[in-house]
Amino acid sequence: MDWNEMQVQQPTVMNMLKRSIEKDRLAHAYIFEGMRGAGKKAVAMLMAQSLYCPYKQDAAPCGSCSECRRVEHGNHPDVMLLEPEGASIKKAQVEALQKELTYKGMETEVKIYIVNDADKMTASAANSLLKFLEEPESPTLALLLTENVHFMLDTIISRSQKISFAPPELERRIEMFEAQGSSKTAAALLAKLPDDVGGNYTGENSDWIVQGRALVIQLVEEVHHRPQQMLLTLQEKWLTHFKDREELDIGLDLLLFWYRDLLTVKYGQQNLAYPDLTERLEQQVILMSETEVAKRLQLILDAKRRLRANVNAQLLMEHLLLRLQEGS
Fold this sequence. Notes:
This protein has helices at 3-9, 11-22, 40-52, 66-72, 91-102, 123-134, 154-158, 170-179, 184-190, 195-198, 206-225, 227-241, 245-266, 278-286, 290-307, 313-326; strands spanning 29-33, 79-82, 111-115, 140-146, 161-164. By secondary structure, it is α/β, with parallel strands linked by helices. α5 links the parallel β2 (79-82) and β3. The protein is elongated.
């Protein structure tokens, strides 16, 4: 992805960085925070290219010289990428990075290190990095990428310049999940979930979302047309699939998406969470006013809040289904 493409997708971010590069006023450390697919890693690579490219125009690198190509292909000796090994970034990884950074740049004065999923550093790794942020032994530029900045040490955040990336367009997120192996039906739902949730159910794990989706469709049908069945389905299927509070919260999100889709089709808009069921949604919304749909949305949001207050999950869901059925 080149500079102009990212300028279109993230104009605020790119304009800010462009001014800093042109005035030679880059901070020593940045936190790029935003949803998956927002282009954080692409921008980090473009920054590295911009600093090393001898043919850049304004701040935009040419993208074709040997410096740009080596950065793009991960072969530049002064650009280092640190990523989680397994579930986390460990202290030994940070120490190895620090050792590399103590040496003078092989070809440039400034070395760049990019930490992907920086929120996944262990406590000891984060403290080790903090020490280096405070007292770097050579000229460095740190680019810390995260989808969950609130999981990072406050002391690291305070010593870095935070740049927030706008969420990617929904269609781009759907394509991203499909590229990771999720089906079209799963991707449409995953794209609407927060990254720290949806990212756990990609590829082969997306089957769980697909099964949850089927339960939502069944439960909604029973709430509105076969209410005598809904509590049985809740007991035998829903609570055995959405087993803990975190999973139940996702189930409530999937239910919330159904009623949001009702309003979406009512106004002829796109980007449905259940795009293959447009006809069924259109039939159901005919029978409900906008006010009635809005009431049901509020009931689900209230249930999500109560779930966080540690109420009994079964009682919460029973109460919610009965109120959805009554519409009040």
